[in-house]
Write a structure and sequence with these properties.
Largest sheet: 3 strands, antiparallel
Structural class: mainly alpha
Shape: elongated
Low-confidence stretches: none
Number of strands: 9
Length: 463
């Protein structure tokens, strides 16, 4: 290696010489990837970098305990890896997310940065790779093929925690609104047409229950990520590792309850755990889309729409129409969820694209899965805090719709029969009178019967 006056150092790898920025902690293989893959400008997710660094630290500790790695070198690698896990040197992870298959370029980016920092800790210079070498020491007992999927799993577990908490908070906020609106009678709607009555609180309670069910699905899918293939190395056979390495390295993550896969070969080949997790995210995204769209529809207007509820006004809605306010938090939620559904399609295609002992599409799986976890969590928090908690109901408008709805004629069926109730509904539609006005005018029921018949509990609960 040699430095030049223009701030460049020359390194060599198995393909020859490579010019690397002199100040860089990465090296030749990373530089080649930077030149080969100027694709998107997107870089590895911070959670993936943190997980990778923790794996390198755990591996150094396990190899030291097993007598494979010198104490001095192991300590330097552990310190360098911990610094990266704590957020340092993140700007040195420069490989595009669309890169060589399996993530070899990304793994070598990590190995080179940790090696150069470890050598710096030991008094050496960047680019010399002595006494700590990226492959021989930082990558000891590892392959890209077990390190990268394990890093995706660890990062997924980390990012799932705030998402699960966000879903809990949104469900609780919807349940609060269900109680607040528990006595608000309104017209139900099926096929976007008037239907039998429902309470506004019941609609909110239904959304809350749906999200709690989705939360359980995500929790179960995330649990599958605890099974890791560290120690499997290239094809899952464990070549170049000590007999106890897989178990020892898993113990370095006590808070995550990781354990070696029962079959390291299978977990090296298959990306289906990631597809399963992404599928659970897709499911909650689909439900959130429906909920967000229902909020938009129920708050439409305020003069020419339903306007049964009002969403908090968080920003002006138009550059040309004064006073206009849009349901921007629900709109944002829709867009995030569309992205999550698209990400799931990408993950599904990548999952089936593996051949034989390896699925090389891991980088795009990592990018899409971790992005989905992150943006879903942040969108749910924003929707909860800046929309759901501030929703108000227009009780009078909901009541007017309820009393005017031809669907209310269904309530008359037990007393006057289907045919007579249908005639009442048709007359209401023709005259513009409410169902109650027609009933009273035609003296079909007494006031006592009307009061009993239109009791909110009777209208909206089984009897």
């Amino acid at each position: 290696m040699g430095d030049t006056p223009d701030g460049i150092r020359t390194e060599s790898d198995s393909l020859g010489d490579v010019r690397v920025p002199a100040a860089a902690y990465y090296g030749a293989q990373t530089q080649r990837a930077v030149e080969n893959f100027p694709i998107s400008g997107l870089r590895a997710h911070p959670a993936l970098i943190r997980a990778t660094a923790l794996i390198k630290r755990a591996s150094a500790r396990a190899n030291r305990q097993l007598g494979k790695l010198d104490e001095r070198l192991a300590s330097a690698i552990e310190q360098a890896a911990q610094e990266i896990a704590d957020g340092q040197l993140r700007d040195q992870f420069v490989v595009d997310v669309f890169q060589a298959g399996a993530g070899t370029s990304y793994n070598m980016n990590a190995n080179e940065v940790i090696a150069n920092r470890a050598n710096e800790i030991l008094g050496g210079a960047r680019g010399m790779y002595a006494p700590v070498h990226p492959n021989d020491h930082v990558n000891m007992s590892q392959s890209t093929n077990d390190t990268v999927p394990a890093a995706i799993r660890i990062a997924g577990l980390e990012l799932a925690t705030p998402l699960l908490a966000a879903l809990d908070a949104l469900a609780a906020a919807l349940e609060d609104k269900a109680r607040e609106f528990g006595d608000v009678l309104k017209s139900g709607r099926t096929h976007l047409q008037d239907a039998v009555p429902i309470r506004l609180g019941q609609e909110f309670a239904g959304w809350a229950w749906t999200l709690r069910r989705d939360r359980r699905r995500i929790d179960a899918a995330v649990d599958c990520l605890r099974e890791i293939n560290l120690g499997g190395t290239a094809v899952g056979t464990g070549m170049n590792t000590a007999a106890d390495y897989a178990a020892n390295v898993a113990l370095e993550f006590p808070g995550l309850d990781l354990h070696p896969a029962a079959n390291l070969i299978a977990v090296t080949q298959s990306m289906s755990d990631f597809a399963h997790g992404s599928g659970a995210l897709r499911t909650v995204a689909l439900d959130l889309i429906q909920i967000a769209n229902d909020l938009r529809l129920l708050s439409s207007g305020p003069r020419t729409g339903l306007a049964e509820i009002a969403l908090p006004a968080v920003q002006p809605g138009s550059s040309i129409m004064p006073g206009k306010v849009n349901p921007v938090m629900a709109e944002m939620t829709d867009m995030v969820c569309f992205q999550v559904v698209g990400n799931d399609t990408t993950i599904a295609l990548a999952t089936q694209a593996g051949q034989l002992e390896l699925n090389v599409m891991m980088p795009v799986i990592a990018h899409n899965l971790l992005q989905s976890l992150e943006i879903l969590a942040q969108a749910v928090v924003a929707l909860t805090e800046r929309c759901v908690r501030g929703i108000t109901a227009d009780r009078a408008r909901a009541r007017r719709y309820f009393e005017s709805s031809v669907g209310l004629a269904t309530v008359l069926n037990p007393l006057i029969g289907y045919r007579a109730a249908a005639k009442v509904a048709q007359e209401s539609e023709r005259t513009g009178e409410t169902i109650l006005e027609v009933v009273r005018r035609r003296k079909l029921l007494t006031e006592e019967q009307i009061g009993e018949l239109f009791d909110p509990a009777r209208l909206t609960e089984p009897r």
